[in-house]
Write a structure and sequence with these properties.
alpha+beta; Jelly Rolls; 2 domains; 4-stranded antiparallel sheet; 47% helix; cAMP-binding domain of CRP or a regulatory subunit of cAMP-dependent protein kinases
Length: 188
């Protein structure tokens, strides 16, 4: 749990009182590799912190799944659009490895906002961080080549990217696994 506090304190200073309220609401859950954490049609009820693991967000399709993001150790994660709107998602979040999450429910987060001095600040800063990541991804899809998108992902998480199957990386970049193979041969 200290990892979560350290992460939050990168955003703002937490008093011990605020931390005790926040941490008392956290639930630790473990998920096996290939487990769906959130499935299409469900409403997201948690904001989670990844202690260990890799998550893949994708839109399921009959022909091929379309991967649109990965989330790694030490990051917050959520089907955030569903979390704030209370509407079902049209995508799935899957554990790509054995994963440990620390989770706070929607209702408990509302209590944290009301009971703590920094709750709203943390919520706003976390939302801003998610927005920036989403905007960066969208701009990359519009402006960068597939090779540059691969290099960006490799630069951001070099020790973890090797744990992601090539077919998911290719989908994320928007190309076929064969095209990704050619890019990797050129780079290495």
């Amino acid at each position: 749990m200290q990892q979560i506090r350290d992460n939050l304190e990168l955003m703002t200073k937490l008093s011990d009182e605020d931390w005790n309220i926040f941490s008392s609401k956290l639930i630790r859950q473990e998920f096996s590799k290939k487990t769906a954490i959130l499935q299409t049609g469900q409403i997201e009820n948690y904001l989670s912190f990844i202690e260990k693991g890799i998550l893949r967000y994708y839109v399921p399709s009959e022909n091929k799944d379309l991967t649109f993001t990965f989330v790694f150790d030490g990051e917050f994660t959520s089907g955030y659009d569903s979390f704030i709107t209370r509407l079902p998602v049209n995508y799935t979040i899957e554990a790509l490895s054995d994963t440990i999450l620390w989770r706070v429910s929607y209702n408990d987060l509302q209590d944290i906002y009301a009971e703590t001095k920094v709750g709203n600040t943390i919520g706003r800063l976390a939302s801003e961080d998610l927005f920036i990541k989403k905007s960066k991804r969208e701009l990359s899809l519009l402006n960068d080549s597939a090779e540059q998108r691969y290099l960006n992902l490799f630069t951001e998480q070099p020790h973890l990217i090797q744990k992601i199957p090539q077919k998911y990386l290719a989908s994320y970049i928007g190309i076929t696994p064969q095209a990704l193979s050619r890019i990797r041969k050129r780079i290495y």
